[in-house]
């Protein structure tokens, strides 16, 4: 599962990581296990079929971009992964573990591995930014306030929002809410992060910042993720840039070039509850399917 | 779905919700802070309207019945008639209706907006159970506070009745109070406290269920709030009849 691209990125990182980290990433046998797997999942609300035989796999360390019109079942797919909904038929596996028939209580352990960034942020209105980010720690019974604060600050620093720590959600702009939502999702360092249209309704620079956070998680923290979007800009950005650490320890973003082609990012396209495309962004662009071309260009080819 | 099937379906869901809360009570991991907060919100917050309702209801009862009692020459028993109707019926029912209007609507609107803004999903995704975190504290608070509010309403109703009797009909306050004491039996008081416990479950169960099953955005929140208040008020009144019947069969039919 480890490609030349992975190794290239890892080479860049080499000076900043312990050697064991590297070997670990290259040799870990469980990397061949998938992080998320859908097997022929069907779901209907009353008479309305939302997912009609969906199968896909998200490998460890991979980012899956899910494209599709609104109402196409993208959020539903994400809710299924979290076990917030149950499919009518088919199997869903997280980390090789079949969670389809798990009870709410059993799901709680699975959810610890997953960070979820909701469409509008879904921050708790009645809690401050601090308490929102600390929520998961409090639920897990961490009572040492110093530990909580340290973790909350670390996460807010990751999304570059430490100064907003004492604000209430309604004092934040849309982009800030999204970033607090990301910070909250990342508490506990989940191996899987799900983004549901994290850039919808944001201005392009802010959207770019959000994408960079996703890239940073993918390339520097080895997180598997699903990134739902219907904006082609995000797709282009996420599938052509990668994050690396420069000699001063700063995170920088570089374009994939001749020597390097990102293979840890793939695209799925949903249409009417079915997956009509799965593969790299280059192949998506080269597709001669009329629907896909219309989606990419916003008009018929 | 036909109306009857829908009714059975809803009844089942409210019962399941209540059952979930009750069975969860015996497991650890509760939220004591949240219970206290809700008790304050529900109990202390509703006190003014409940006291006002009680006071004026007691007052108007005396105002309307005193002349009739006087006609039969038993106006010295006006305290008794007021106290009995207050403690047995009007106190519990009116308090429950006021609380359903004020708290039932608030609960269902709050939970409903949390559903439509995905906060409930977020809560579950972050590892907490909305049933334990949101529903249980509200139900416990209602079941504890509603009987207390009812007693407060009863007391203020009697004060209201006494005030009207003495200021408008020139009755001696002691005569009034003596007649109150003769009128109210232990069974009445017990019945008057058992009822609000059930009413608390009805109001909380319906409001939480309606709130959590909200669909259709902000319009949906309005819809579930209306449904929560209307349904819980109706069920309080219907249930009141059957509770009264049950209490009568347990304690024997009381005589005024
Ligand atoms: N709880 C629900 N009850 C009924 N219909 C639903 C529910 N959730 C989603 N749907 C329907 O399922 C379809 C897919 O929704 P969704 O997954 O949110 O789409 P999107 O791709 O825009 O995220 C929509 O038509 C929506 O109306
Ligand atoms: Mg969606």
Give the tally of structural domains of chain A.
Answer: 2
How far apart the termini of chain B lie comes to 47 Å
**Poorly predicted spans of chain A:** 1-26
CATH superfamily of the largest domain in chain A: P-loop containing nucleotide triphosphate hydrolases
What is the rounded Rg of chain A? 19 Å
The shape of chain A, in one word, is globular
**How many discrete structural domains of chain B?**
1
Description:
The complex is a heterodimer of chains A (301) and B (256). Chain A has helices spanning 4-13, 19-27, 74-81, 104-111, 129-139, 145-158, 174-186, 204-220, 232-238, 281-286, 290-297; strands spanning 34-45, 48-59, 63-68, 89-94, 97-98, 114-117, 192-196, 224-228, 241-245, 251-255, 265-271, 274-279. With 301 residues, chain A is of the alpha/beta class. Chain A folds into two domains: 30-113 and 191-301, P-loop containing nucleotide triphosphate hydrolases (Rossmann fold, 3-Layer(aba) Sandwich), CATH 3.40.50.300; 121-189, no CATH class. In chain A, helix 5 runs parallel beside helix 7. Chain B has one domain (30-247). Chain B has helices spanning 3-24, 32-71, 78-116, 119-125, 130-167, 173-183, 186-212, 217-251. In chain B, helix 3 (78-116) crosses helix 6. The A-B interface holds A 79, 82, 84, 104, 108, 111-112, 114, 116, 118-120, 122-125, 135-136, 139-140, 184 and B 117-119, 121-129. The structure holds adenosine-5'-diphosphate and magnesium ion.
Itemize the secondary structure elements and their pairings.
The complex is a heterodimer of chains A (301) and B (256).
Chain A (H helix, E strand, L loop, with lengths): L3 H10 L5 H9 L6 E12 L2 E12 L3 E6 L5 H8 L7 E6 L2 E2 L5 H8 L2 E4 L11 H11 L5 H14 L15 H13 L5 E5 L7 H17 L3 E5 L3 H7 L2 E5 L5 E5 L9 E7 L2 E6 L1 H6 L3 H8 L4
Chain B lengths: L2 H22 L7 H40 L6 H39 L2 H7 L4 H38 L5 H11 L2 H27 L4 H35 L5
Helix pairs in contact in B: 1-5, 1-7, 2-3, 2-5, 3-5, 3-6, 3-7, 3-8, 5-6, 5-7, 7-8
The structure holds adenosine-5'-diphosphate (ADP) and magnesium ion (MG).
């Amino acid at each position: 599962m480890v490609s030349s691209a992975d190794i290239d990125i890892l080479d860049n990182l080499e000076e900043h990581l312990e050697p064991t980290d590297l070997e670990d990433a290259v040799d870990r046998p469980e990397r061949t296990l998938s992080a998320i797997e859908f097997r022929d999942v069907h779901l209907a609300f009353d008479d309305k079929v939302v997912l009609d035989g969906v199968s896909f796999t998200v490998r460890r360390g991979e980012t899956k971009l899910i494209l599709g019109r609104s109402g196409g079942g993208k959020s539903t797919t994400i809710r299924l992964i979290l076990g917030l909904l149950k499919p009518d038929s088919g199997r869903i596996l997280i980390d090789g573990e079949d969670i389809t028939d798990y009870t709410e209580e059993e799901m709680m352990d699975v959810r610890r591995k997953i960070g979820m960034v909701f469409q509008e942020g879904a921050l708790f209105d009645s809690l401050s930014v601090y308490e929102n980010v600390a929520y998961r720690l409090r639920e897990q019974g961490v009572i040492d306030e110093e530990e909580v604060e340290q973790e909350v600050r670390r996460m807010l620093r990751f999304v570059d929002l430490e100064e907003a720590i004492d604000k209430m959600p309604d004092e934040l702009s849309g982009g800030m809410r999204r970033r607090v939502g990301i910070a909250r999702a990342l508490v506990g360092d989940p191996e899987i992060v799900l983004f549901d249209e994290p850039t919808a309704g944001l201005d392009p620079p802010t959207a770019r910042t959000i994408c960079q956070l996703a890239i940073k998680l993918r390339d520097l923290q080895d997180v598997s993720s699903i990134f739902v979007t219907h904006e082609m800009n995000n797709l282009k950005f996420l599938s052509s840039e990668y994050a690396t650490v420069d000699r001063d320890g700063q995170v920088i973003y570089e374009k994939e070039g001749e020597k390097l082609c990102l293979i840890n990012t793939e695209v799925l396209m949903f249409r009417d509850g079915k997956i009509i495309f799965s593969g790299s962004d280059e192949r998506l662009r080269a597709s001669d399917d009329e629907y896909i071309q219309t989606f990419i260009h916003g008009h018929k080819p | 779905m036909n109306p009857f099937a829908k009714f059975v379906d809803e009844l089942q869901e409210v019962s399941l919700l209540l059952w979930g809360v009750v069975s969860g009570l015996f497991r650890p991991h509760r939220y004591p802070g949240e219970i206290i907060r809700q008790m304050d919100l529900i109990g202390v917050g509703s006190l003014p309207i409940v006291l006002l309702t009680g006071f004026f209801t007691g007052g108007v009862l005396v105002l309307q019945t005193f002349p009739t009692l006087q006609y039969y020459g038993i106006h010295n028993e006006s305290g008794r008639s007021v106290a009995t109707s207050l403690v047995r019926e009007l106190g519990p029912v009116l308090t429950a209706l006021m609380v359903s209007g004020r708290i039932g609507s608030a609960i269902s609107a709050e939970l409903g907006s949390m559903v439509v803004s995905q906060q409930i999903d977020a809560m579950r995704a972050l590892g907490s159970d909305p049933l334990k975190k949101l529903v249980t504290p509200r139900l416990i608070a209602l079941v504890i506070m509603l009987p207390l509010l009812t007693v407060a309403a009863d007391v203020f109703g009697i004060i209201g009745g006494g005030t009207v009797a003495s200021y408008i009909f020139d009755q001696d306050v002691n005569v009034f109070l003596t007649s109150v004491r003769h009128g109210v039996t232990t069974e009445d008081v017990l019945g008057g406290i058992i009822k609000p416990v059930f009413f608390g479950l009805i109001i909380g169960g319906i409001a939480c269920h309606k709130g959590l099953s909200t669909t259709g955005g902000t319009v949906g929140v309005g819809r579930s709030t209306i449904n929560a208040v209307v349904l819980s008020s109706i069920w309080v009144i219907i249930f009141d009849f059957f509770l009264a019947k049950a209490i009568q069969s347990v304690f024997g039919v009381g005589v005024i």
